[in-house]
Amino acid sequence: MLFMSRCTAFCFLAVAMTSCATAAVIVNSALPITKVVRVRLIRAAEDNGTNVANAFGSGSTKAYIEDQIDRIWAQAGIDIEFDTETPIYNSAFALRGNNGSGTRPQSDFNLIRNGAAAAGLTSTNANTLNMIMVDVVPGFAPLGNLSSAGLASLGGNGITGYAGDTLLTYNNGRDVIASVMAHEIGHNLGLQHTANSLANLMSPGGSTEQLSSSQIATALSSRFVFNLPPPLPGDYNGDNLVGVADYTVWRDGLGTPAEIGSYDEWASNYGDVRSTAVPEPAACALACVMALVGISRQSRAGIRRHPAAADAVG
């Protein structure tokens, strides 16, 4: 099944700043975080390793985009956990394809995904989603620096994405990237498009990143969703490692409403590390091999709102 997704308005001119609200991340209240989805970012590059595709930037830029994706999926009680490693995929074909300024064939999606797997770059965990960042997403012509786009397997493992240079430089632009990639994760978790122009993450032309209760139920049934383990004793900052930073959190909270844990708990667990989550049995039981895997694509492009009909594929 092939279908297209929303192209959401995004402004960059000072005189049009009021319409930049369309780029802000708008979500429902978060649910208690009890589940986790793991994602591995892979960046395509030229054959010689140069001209590496954008991902989420680094430092505070990367943290902001990942936090916004987390905010979106917190509506479902899901934490999106990105691998600490981001490998480089040296393949000019994966990076931009062979179509020059024309539209890249959607069939390139499987070639990119399979090539990354053959190169040993995808996760060794079959239930970790692989998000491959490229310069030209299959199904799209080359896009500008004020655009972000993606193509994903519907209910399967795999996303190709693009993040324009300029979008990485300010928060509204980073919101665009977060929205597109959260949308693509939704497709991997089994979510299809809603009707056009709704206040919903999965709506073509949608105005917000909200999720419905039925969408949440569908996502939670995905084989890519795992139970979040109980808190690691002594891990007071939630980084899955009991270390000096946790002592600081405990000490700074003493005698305040934020007081947490105890010195004895921290000291007795110092050095403990948690690296894996516990699979959700019900979700794992739903894993299946499908003869046909649907593919969906999403684009949030700069400057103006494009009609949904302009993004339709027969």
Automatic annotation (TrEMBL):
Pfam families: Reprolysin_3
Key word Signal present: yes
Keywords: Signal
Secretion signal, residue range per the UniProt entry: 1-23
Keyword flag Glycoprotein: no
GO molecular function, a single term: metallopeptidase activity
Protein name (database record): Peptidase M10 metallopeptidase domain-containing protein
Organism (species): Botrimarina hoheduenensis
